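Researcher: Please generate the 3D structure of the following complex. Treat every line as part of one assembly.
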Amino acid sequence: MAPPDPADGTARRPRRHDPDRKARILDAALDVLVEQGTVGITHRHVAARADVPLGSVTYHFASLAELQAQAFARFVEQRGSEFAALFDGVRTRAELVDVLVDLVHGSPSRHRSAVLGFELHLAALRDPGLRALAAGWTRSSQEVLARFTGQDDAARLDALLEGMIMHALLTTEPRSREATRTAIARTVDPREQGGSRATR
Amino acid sequence: MAPPDPADGTARRPRRHDPDRKARILDAALDVLVEQGTVGITHRHVAARADVPLGSVTYHFASLAELQAQAFARFVEQRGSEFAALFDGVRTRAELVDVLVDLVHGSPSRHRSAVLGFELHLAALRDPGLRALAAGWTRSSQEVLARFTGQDDAARLDALLEGMIMHALLTTEPRSREATRTAIARTVDPREQGGSRATR
Amino acid sequence: MAPPDPADGTARRPRRHDPDRKARILDAALDVLVEQGTVGITHRHVAARADVPLGSVTYHFASLAELQAQAFARFVEQRGSEFAALFDGVRTRAELVDVLVDLVHGSPSRHRSAVLGFELHLAALRDPGLRALAAGWTRSSQEVLARFTGQDDAARLDALLEGMIMHALLTTEPRSREATRTAIARTVDPREQGGSRATR
Amino acid sequence: MAPPDPADGTARRPRRHDPDRKARILDAALDVLVEQGTVGITHRHVAARADVPLGSVTYHFASLAELQAQAFARFVEQRGSEFAALFDGVRTRAELVDVLVDLVHGSPSRHRSAVLGFELHLAALRDPGLRALAAGWTRSSQEVLARFTGQDDAARLDALLEGMIMHALLTTEPRSREATRTAIARTVDPREQGGSRATR
DNA sequence: TATGAATGAGGGTTCATTCAT
DNA sequence: GATGAATGAACCCTCATTCAT
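Model: Done. Output below.
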């Protein structure tokens, strides 16, 4: 005889043997991070988000800190590939600028990456393990950019993008794409003087 | 017979009638924010840091959210003046660059501002009130910069600084001041091509 | 409008301002210790036993270990006075033996002291703070006995009593009072050879 | 792709077909009992101590209570033989006293027995099954002693030893062997009046 | 005005036990 | 036979907030 369903409408969860449950928990943790930030990372929130019993989270992760660390690691891995893929078809400086402008004035899907990135950066301020992770991520991002701009300009460009993305996340009256384009274009190629689309 | 002490470490303190206690509490809250981030903002932590009884915090602030908001407001106000003052003696582009390089490769006192700034930015992502505060801060910062660079370049410079400060906070092997100087110099004056100290 | 009573029949507890609640919690903890042993010392058990909300226990005691330590300290203090009082009217060796036999073949009220004493001894094995407490208790007990027997015999007598009390607690077929009396009498006065009531 | 490890430290161990694993688990449980007391008896602790997978403990024992009971039973059996063997070469009262003094002022190996004995006694207070076990142990111990002292004195001697061992376990400034010897000698032979080594 | 006692929700974590493999 | 994934209860403790004094 099966146990009765609880009264509160939540269906019984008979799910035993669920492979890659661990990965699903990590994805749920990233969802929570986007919506609530690091304060939202609790066993109970993550479990509810992953539609998994509480004990399942504590079973797979020895501590919340470890869960958070692995979630961030998963993000960096996934986002690293995505980021590199953005530049796959880029041949000219103009195309590079196009991609970067899209990066800043991003779609909702970019919003997620941006928020997670900043959460990681802030968490890394006080966690050496996360600091190493963030450093690796920054390095690989700059390597991607450096293929187009050279090493030094890549660092500069990366910092500019970081700041612009943060501002874009926060601003209520979004700066026009044109202003963003100009700023990026000048950084990608300092000889650019005009604010409009580079024609040469 | 003396009344029993509570179990936590809060000792008995006979300080009655303490003007500007409210301000001291806010400063303590900022200290906590620097050291532990927004998760550390609890009545007990702040009270202990301010060396003030627990009830004093709840008495002066209707809720924790309000305490945090006022603490951030105090920070923006203080930091705004400080920031403007940094540029008081600046006359040439070279001097501007000097000040900005110092801003990025900051002393420990700058560390505090940088951390609080990022804490504010991240908290503002999910709190409309803080978002307005952060927006005002960004605007006034850019106005200061714009006195030297014009409006558009100020926004670009501000974003660059933001990104470089974050990277400087996180990196383990700090990038040389020279690289920072070059990046800033090129942004301040796009005609700069060399990486070394600008001579005029 | 008062909040409604909970559905499970437990009456609402409007009790604010309850002085010597801390002492009541400690007494409840001792009750729990008697009934369930150290494993039963949980915030919830003690709170329920003291008819006090859970938060009240955590408020008054910084940790469970501290609660347990203070409870044992309270027991030692109370029991110390009781123990000394047992010998107030003792004038002769025979009266001393009478009191000690009663101590071993104790009433239910003695059961409590015996169990708490052994719980303390065992807990003290692994807790230096409790070890000091237990040592002090043993010392003061032996001082009381020494007033009748001298220092060395007091130690011997104390050990014998300890062992007999433990056996009395455990045995299913209780040894007769006569056997206990004989054993004690021989220890109190080694010249005693017979097993029956000392007449001299 | 390897299956994920659980979050706790239990590593993968390829030991299949391990006879007398059950006995090894019981010995591990006794080790845990000595070090942490009955609260430490958990499936995980015992499994880790025995270097055995978690499931192995639940497989061999229907419940934790049963595991504990069997561990105590194993202790009583082993310790019973050991205890009897202590008296194998005893011929005179003086030799008997020597053995008993060693029993109280024991080496580390005796420490283990003493702690386990008291753990058993206290656990038996609240568990009828263990009470029977403890009663049997006490009986057989007294039978060994009775071969030298007679039935009544054996019970008295056993109680004295029990108390002295407990005191010896707890005391920080260990009572001298001489005092212990005197106490035992007087109990073994009430005609003994002097405190020093009995010469006949 | 100012304080600290009081409360209950919710936090991280450990655990005995069940069960599919 | 043997194992480890899975589950939910219960653990200790921290906390925001309320309120009597």
